[in-house]
Description:
This protein is α+β, with helices and mostly antiparallel strands and 278 residues long.
Amino acid sequence: xxxxxxxxxxxxxxxxxxxxxxxxxxxxxxxxxxxxxxxxxxxxxxxxxxxxxxxxxxxxxxxxxxxxxxxxxxxxxxxxxxxxxxxxxxxxxxxxxxxxxxxxxxxxxxxxxxxxxxxxxxxxxxxxxxxxxxxxxxxxxxxxxxxxxxxxxxxxxxxxxxxxxxxxxxxxxxxxxxxxxxxxxxxxxxxxxxxxxxxxxxxxxxxxxxxxxxxxxxxxxxxxxxxxxxxxxxxxxxxxxxxxxxxxxxxxxxxxxxxxxxxxxxxxxxxxxxxxxx
Length: 278
């Protein structure tokens, strides 16, 4: 099991940072949201502001679980905001290229017109790990050990290998393990960023329960709207609206338990043949 705060922390300064990627965040290689979170932490270490507003990025290569070099550059420094470019490389291979906006103390309108989906309280729902153990299923990728997932609409009677296609939506409660909350606003934003990256594929794959493909993320965008750093539970809901020509699109929203929208995002995924089941 990894720790989000520890495993995304970077070392260095003056626009040059390093991070050894942890294999506790493995799904088909390092999880894309984890790699993007390392980029976000590097931007936070570089920025003079303490609040991430957004990140957009391209995933350019699959890294090994080893040290990556991170270059950070300010593209625009204004009084209340800063645009930052983050480049992650491993040897001669480009891994991730991202743009981050950081903001300071800014006033303005404050509104939230979203509504958290009606769902059961997370403590009233068994964890996915408990349900899989009761069913005798094999453990998932190491990545999933970092999350306490609670799926309110889980169907214990579903014949999983022969399940029918379902709506391309995935919504669950998530709590990070072993450390669930973080006061640092950059680490707190990583909680949402990882969910935004990860959950579009589970949503899309509901349509194709016996699919022949996997779909790693090729680009991501995320906006961080509000903070609830003391709340361990986040409800994340992803929807895949369209797929064609080998590209799948989807978007995600993340709420705190009090119904506050904390982050939104969207991503594109590239289909490729699935490897053998681990």
